[in-house]
Amino acid sequence: MHSDNYLDQSSVGSPAYFTGRTAQLRSAIDYMLQQWQAQTQLDASRIGVYGFSIGAFTALTAAGGQPDLRGVARYCSEHHEFVCQMLRQANSFLFGTAWPDDFDQFSKDERIKALVLAAPGLGFSFNDEAALSQVDVPVQLWQGEQDDTVPDASNAKVIRDQLGARVVFHQVPNAAHLSFLLPCGLLSMLPTCHDPAGFDRQAFHDDMNQQVADFFAQQLK
Question: Tens of pLDDT along 164-184?
Answer without folding.
Answer: 999 999 999 999 999 999 998
